[in-house]
Amino acid sequence: MRLQIKGICHSYDQVEALRDIDFGIEPGEVVALIGPSGCGKSTLLSIIGGLLAPTRGEILICDKATPEGCLNPLTYVFQDFALLPWRTVAGNISLVLEDHGLSKADRDARVAEVLEQTNLWDFRDAYPKQLSGGMKQRVGIARALAVRPAALLMDEPLSALDAQTRILLLDEFAALFARTGMTAVYVTHNLNEAVRLANRVVALRRRPGTIKEIHTIDIPIAERREGMPELIAHESALWNLIRDEAIAADKELENVA
Ligand SMILES: Nc1ncnc2c1ncn2[C@@H]1O[C@H](COP(=O)(O)OP(=O)(O)OP(=O)(O)O)[C@@H](O)[C@H]1O
């Protein structure tokens, strides 16, 4: 799916959150949105996903190409997993397939397929309260994949997890993106995640949120490894881009507390 973000501006009452945001997302591309706290990353993701109408501008879907059997072209992965506690792993995944006119056999086949893809098969009958944070987020990913999306929209999907689980899931996301050629928009505070996963990184400045720079990382995602000198160089270039504003945003939050 090719998306064009065109002249997006958004204000919440008196707060001008985004101004004149323009860029394209190519099919199979992973775009990370980074920037200091409050620069409008989540607002932009919500606008791309159609959850929020922008004050001005539009999101153009330039080609309508979607995977076969796609039930929801733009699909969210939430940082807090958003699982139903009274449903099993398989039940949580199957939930998003209900009300789409699929037969039970089709639903079961899709659930089995994504359970395999996310290494959750052995946990299919477990309930969310029995799972670690990392396993819960795997269920979140499996649920998103079950609708065969054209693009995944991910809002800090690893931020609720401990450091070791983050590293494990980061490897799994990289493998997933490399294997499926999935189009994705990935919001993160974490520059390490951005350089592991993204083909391009959109760095935003704040007040109002505008594009500071679009940074390209031209190493195939499948070839990226933790600690690669080239990735460390990209991470440090990104930090130099947002450093001053990140420090200012941090001080501002400290003053409020
Ligand atoms: N519902 C809302 N009502 C009023 N102001 C809002 C609302 N949501 C966000 N804002 C403001 O809009 C600006 C952008 O917020 P947003 O959450 O999109 O930024 P962010 O970059 O995702 O922040 P963070 O990194 O802290 O999650 C901030 O100044 C925020 O306070």
TrEMBL record:
Respond yes or no to whether keyword Signal is given for this record.
Answer: no
Stretch forming the signal peptide: none
InterPro entries on file: AAA+_ATPase, ABC_transporter-like_ATP-bd, ABC_transporter-like_CS, ABC_transporter_ATP-bind, P-loop_NTPase
According to the UniProt entry, its GO molecular function terms are:
ATP binding; ATP hydrolysis activity
Q: Which residues form a coiled coil?
A: none
Q: Where is the ABC transporter domain?
A: 3-231
Q: Which UniProt keywords apply?
A: ATP-binding, Nucleotide-binding, Transport
Write out the similarity annotation. Answer: Belongs to the ABC transporter superfamily.
**Cited PANTHER family:** ABC TRANSPORTER ATP-BINDING PROTEIN, TAURINE IMPORT ATP-BINDING PROTEIN-RELATED
Query: What is the designated name of this protein?
Result: Nitrate ABC transporter ATP-binding protein
